[in-house]
Amino acid sequence: MMKKTYKIEVDCANCAQKMEDAANTVAGVAQATVSFMTQKMKVEFAEGAEPHDTMVNVLAACKKVEDDCEIFDI
């Protein structure tokens, strides 16, 4: 299983939790964790998932709950 860490921009711990919850609903994500303190999102991809395509969908899902969030280097 592939894991990647992404730099994110999120305004508060509550927003980070919302982003984490949203990311975990996306197809291709086995598990996502978001840390407000480190401004990082760790994503474990499901078997056969294409990381770039999956992360485009993760960003879209996160923007639905927190429209000013950002995920870098997708």
UniProtKB/TrEMBL annotation:
This is Heavy metal-associated domain protein. SUPFAM superfamilies: HMA, heavy metal-associated domain (SSF55008). Residues 1-70 form the HMA domain. It holds the Pfam family HMA. Signal peptide: none annotated. GO terms for molecular function: metal ion binding. It comes from Faecalibacterium duncaniae (strain DSM 17677 / JCM 31915 / A2-165) (Faecalibacterium prausnitzii).
